[in-house]
Design goal:
Number of domains: 1
Number of strands: 4
Number of helices: 5
Strand order of the largest sheet: 2-1-3-4
Helix content: 25-40%
Shape: globular
Largest sheet: 4 strands, mixed
Strand content: 15-25%
Order of helices and strands: EHHHEHEEH
Distance between the termini: 8 Å
């Protein structure tokens, strides 16, 4: 996957990163009130999936994985639904993979293909 060297990719969860945010997400997930497609791909119940770590290792560009409460004001201005994947090149942001796209991404291979298509 060819990604410009001056680019940054942001993977943004639909969950807060604090201890209580994680607990809240877990409880809501268990009772069926909340789901985060990116969370499902990257973690099992307690730990990061090996496939997620390998996927990140093979990216050709710098990246950050963020929780909803860690997103910069620049990204918040885009008014996006999470989870999503955002691309920054120079000072410009764009959404590569939307919240709705994650409904059709069931595994890391699907995510990899969606990312390739977006470039």
């Amino acid at each position: 996957m060819l990604i410009p060297s001056n680019a940054m990719i942001y993977f943004i969860y639909n969950a807060n990163g604090s201890f209580f945010g994680e607990i809240n997400y877990f409880i809501n997930k268990m009772i069926g009130r909340e789901k985060c497609g990116l969370c499902e791909l990257s973690h099992n119940i307690f730990f990061k999936r090996k496939s997620w770590k390998l996927f990140l290792d093979e990216l050709d560009a710098p990246y950050q994985v963020l929780h909803a409460d860690e997103v910069s004001s620049e990204i918040k201005k885009l008014n996006l639904d999470y989870p999503c994947v955002v691309y920054k090149k120079d000072d410009s942001f764009s959404e590569l993979i939307s919240h709705n796209d994650f409904k059709n991404i069931g595994n890391i291979n699907d995510l990899r293909n969606a990312l390739k298509k977006s470039f």
